[in-house]
Amino acid sequence: MSLPAIEARRPIAPRMATGSVSLPWLIALALFALLWLAPVPKWIDVYPKAWEIPAARWISTAMKWLVNEATFGLFTFTEFTRFLASIIEAPYRLAMSLLATGFLSGQGSSAVQVAPPLSWIAVIGIVALMGHAAGGRALALLAAACFAFILVFGQWQSAMATLASVLVAVPIGVAGGMLLGIAAYRHPRFERALTPVLDVMQTVPAFAYLVPILFLFGFGPTAAILATVIYALPPMARITALALRQVAPEIRDLGRMVGATRRQMTWRVLVPSARDSLMVGVNQVIMLSLNMVIIASMIGAGGLGFDVLAALRRLDIGAGLEAGLAIVALAVALDRLSQAFAQRDFAAARAGASWPARYPHAAAAAALVAATYLLGFVLPAIRTWPEAWEISTGAFLSDVVKWININFFDTFEAVKNAILLNLLIPFKRLLGDLPWLGVTGLIAVAGWRLGGVRLMATVAILSFLIAATGQWEKAMVTVYLCGISVLFAALIGIPIGILAAENDRVWRAVSLIIDTLQTLPSFVYLMPVVMLFRVGDFSAMIAVVAYAVVPAIRYTVLGLTRVDPRVIEAGRAMGATRGQILSRIRLKLALPEILLGINQTIMFALSMLVITALVGTRDLGQEVYIALTKADTGRGLVAGLAVAAIAIVADRLISAGAARTRARLGLADTGGPAS
Amino acid sequence: MTAKLSCRHVWKLFGEGAKAFLADTPSPDAAALSARNLVGAVRDVNLDVADGEIFVIMGLSGSGKSTLVRCLSRLIEPTAGEILFNGENLLAADEKRMIEIRRHRMGMVFQHFALLPHLSVLDNVAFPLSIQGKDRAGREARAREMIDLVGLTGREAFFPRQLSGGQQQRVGIARSLAVEPELWFLDEPFSALDPLIRREMQDEFVRLQSKLKKTIVFITHDFDEAIRLADRIAIMKDGEIVQTGTPEDLVLNPATDYVREFTRDVAKAKVVSVGSLMKPGDASGRPPVAATARISEAARLFDGGETLAVVDATGTPVGRLERRDVADLMLRG
Q1: How far apart are CA A103 and CA A112, in angstroms?
Q2: Taking CA A8 as the corner, what is the angle to CA A3 and CA A14, rounded to the nearest 5 degrees?
Q3: Which candidate, A17, A115, A493, B185, has a CA 20 to 30 Å from the CA of A208?
Q4: Three-class SS of residue B325?
Q5: What is the structure's pLDDT at A18?
Q6: What local confidence, expressed as pLDDT, does residue A14 receive?
Q7: CB–CB of A297/A308 below 8 Å?
């Protein structure tokens, strides 16, 4: 999740005289302490039930109305959702037939296979050829090895089902995102309407919109793919609008000077010129789709995600790890392939040659498909990998985990209990005790001091709404888990970032690890945590820290390496030691970037936190999860929006703080990487 | 002199309510503009570009020259005024007509080349024709001709990133010429190039123009370049044209101190013609020199004598050139 740093780009109000800065804070803190500690009316402490806005009920009623009564004149809403489903259904069935089930004729158990799915040799061959076309021999080997790993460990069928969903979701997500982005680029008014929608879409946790989709589209792969598209589309829309805007003005002038029509301008001038940035968007759509297809196993996506989920429910660590590793292999292969295609240079087509000579890779792939299809009639092993050849490590992995638990159980328990008792539980109690009115007031003051009246209004209203919809208590649990996790992520990530920025070798190793961590679907993180620490807040915290540490490292490195080398040179010329240069120059100047890194860490943490509901937390995530199992749209959406509200409050406050720091340091607003 | 392109009282103001303000206040001064928070990028510009002429608009950055050239092709909509192209007011033309004019009558070369990164040299040059919907064989034949003209034969299949800056701009020039434009805009075409390459490209440009005889509007911030290439120069400052004239006019009779500042470092002998420095009188018997020749060329002909006989195009004597005057001029710089 990445929120745009729009707030950060707002001009900064002139800083007040230094003496007056702390005065409003002192008054606010004193009032807060009064509300908290003094005997005050109960409604200040706990938001009264009687005043709650029944938002959940309203939403549920609205959804029922949509399904049962809403009509657009020519067709009803239900017909519209069916139409959407059918658009997805057909390509999904085709992809599934090709990759997993084969082409069937007839219904249910009496179905007869008319044609087999692609042979495993053909699939591995095709990904290897794609790797070769995009990145040469090394990439071909990597892609083939990833798929062979999946095959050998018996995850082929599930992986192909997951891949089929991704293959259907990605083109829809890319095309839809691009069209929205182009529309936003062309019509500023449309963009103003679209931006807040995208903001909310990206901050509402993925679980939350599984609920309405489940309600509208039922349980099954179609609903899952739809959820995937909705999840993966916003970044593409954003990147498209941004990429088109970044096309050099001269290129735009060129288009007009050669007399291009609007359509020619878009499709023949702007889009091809923005190709590089757009391909970054495609890569993101692919990775987000994979992530969501795994999560959407909750509403019937099937495939590897379902295997992980089922294993989690059975606490079958071995099977879960196997499926998890297969997801990792799939993620690595898809990420590297799409990145290589994004970075590939334009090659001159050999004009005049015959078709196979011009497109050797496509020709080889076609030949491979045909050959394996025919050979499959003679040798069944070519068609499907014989079960006897599969290696199952499930039992072995379970044994390893058992061994670890037997030998290290006491150590793990001791660490876990110590942190739980001394840190987690006291912090949780403290946050639970705080009066809602006081917290809202403090947030408002922070908004006012950091960004002015508008920011104050935004954050105060959001905070009030959390209380008013009856989510306060659970929201505080979310804030507590998120806060603790972010603290740990920062304590781990920032020192690693400093080390990596100082030492190139460390950075190469670290970047390899965090790049891989970032490609992994969030679901995968749950397996090892549950394995070692079982369920509970502590496990959730570990998973969140592992997931959210990446931006803390990345932004710290970015901030430190971006410090103007002339300033460092000046420091060295003054005789500063390495340590002094680090602590008194580089870290000071890198502060805004590090703040933005913390901001991203919070966003990552919140998105992961919701998923950790599966390992038994008691926060808003759990609320969404329960709503999902009951298909209770109102409850799920309200809790999801509360998470979004927390995310937006944190994002706006920190962005404003970073912008202030930056302005004070006289640094240009550069923005962060799109991570 | 028949004008191919004329500007009549062209204004471009940036800011809220610029059009209404200009309708009320026909020619506001700088103070009136800043009082209304308006930026006058182009202010009351009048100019005529003759058929086959190289007209250079010279100004420093922020002088409004780029805005002006974009107003001429209506890439930027002027706030007020008339732009007459072959007598037709472009500001009255509708979008369809403008597309028509830009497709067939105008070509433009850009400072940073503006090549499309995903197309080969051949496809880049053929791009304007492809936008017009011309068939592949026809547009590629024409593109090859243009590539040959700018000396890039053999590199048709290259991509822009495989070329040097000078070569990229040759592609940009070939592309702008592919549609056989009547009016050729060059927006600081050589500013992004190294000094040596810039010089080479200027020579190349002179060679091309001697062949093509286009009507040219050439933008530059480099006064030396303007002097080298121009038939006439317009000097811009703060959105206004300060002076228009031949290079010689500007050097000999700068209208303001601003213009004088530019001409100070120019080697005058290379700009001033014999005709401007000659005196009346007879110098028969002395070596002859054409009145249109530059002083720097004439200086070599004295051959120890004190005077030269100035003759016109038909060889008729029209005056005499004194060695002392030449020396004075050259010593003044």
Answers
A1: 8
A2: 160
A3: A493
A4: helix
A5: 44
A6: 43
A7: yes
Residues in chain A with CB shorter than 8 Å from the CB of B137 are none
Q: Does A388 touch chain B (CB under 8 A)?
A: no
pLDDT (0 to 100) of residue A453 = 87
Task: Provide ipTM, 2 decimals.
Answer: 0.87
**Which burial class, exposed, middle or buried, applies to A438 when counting CB atoms under 10 A from its CB (0-12, 13-18, 19+)?**
buried
pLDDT of B128: 95
Do residue A248 and residue B114 have CB atoms under 8 angstroms apart? yes
Tell me: the pLDDT tens digits for A175-201? 999 999 999 999 999 999 998 888 888
Closest CA to A490 of A559, A540, A554: A554
Sign, CA torsion A486/A492/A496/A498: positive
Q: By the CB < 8 Å criterion, does A352 face chain B?
A: no
Count up the domains in chain B and report the number. Answer: 2
DSSP line for A44-69: HHS--GGG---HHHHHHHHHHHHHHT
- Enclosing H/E stretch for A377: helix A360-378
Predicted TM-score (pTM) of the model is 0.81
Per-residue model confidence (pLDDT) at position A31: 79
pLDDT tens, position by position, A434-463:
888 888 888 888 888 888 888 889 899 998
Mean pLDDT by 10 residues, chain B (333 residues): 86 88 83 84 93 93 91 92 92 92 93 91 94 93 94 91 92 94 94 89 91 93 91 93 92 91 84 86 82 85 83 85 86 72
Contact B129, B178 (CB under 8 A): yes
Looking at A363, A381, A399, the residue that finishes a domain is A381
| Interchain CB contact of A260 with B (< 8 Å) | yes
Helix, strand, coil shares of chain B, percent, nearest 5, are 40, 25, 35
Total residues found in chain A within this entry: 675
Does residue A187 fall inside a structural domain? Answer: yes
Give pLDDT, residue B98.
Answer: 92
Contact A595, A553 (CB under 8 A): no
Residue A54 within a domain: no
Q: What parts of chain A have a pLDDT lower than 50?
A: 1-20, 349-350, 670-675
Q: Minimal Cα–Cα distance from A249 to chain B, Å? A: 9
pLDDT of residue A7: 36
> A221-246 vs A77-96: helix axis angle to the nearest 10?
90
Both tokens assigned to A243: 């990429």
Residue A2 CA to residue A647 CA, distance in Å, equals 11
Note whether B118 contacts A346, CB cutoff 8 Å.
Answer: yes
CATH of the domain at A629: 1.10.3720.10
CA distance B128 to chain A (A): 5
pLDDT the model gives residue A209: 77
**B106 in A contact zone (CB under 8 Å):** yes
Which residue(s) pair with A105 in the sheet?
A112
| Nearest-angstrom CA–CA distance, A485 and A621 | 15
Q: Which residues of A63-89 are buried (b: 16+ CB within 10 A; e: fewer)?
A: beebeeeeeeeeebbeebbeeebeebb
- In a shared domain, residues B136 and B170: yes
Q: For residue A652, which of A445, A437, A450 has the smallest C-alpha distance? A: A450
Answer yes or no: is A308 within a domain.
yes
User: Most A CBs within 10 Å: which of B95, B108, B134, B179, as the mutation test of the A interface?
Assistant: B108
For residue A197, give its domain range: 78-98+117-344+355-381
Strands B88-89 and B106-109: unpaired
- Compute the distance between CA of residue A538 and CA of residue A519 in angstroms, rounded to an integer: 24
Q: Is B127 on the interface with A (CB under 8 A)?
A: yes
Q: How far is CA A409 from CA A318, A406, A527, A551, B66, in A?
A: 18, 6, 17, 31, 74
Q: Are A269 and A251 a contacting pair, CB within 8 Å?
A: yes
How many domains in chain A? 2
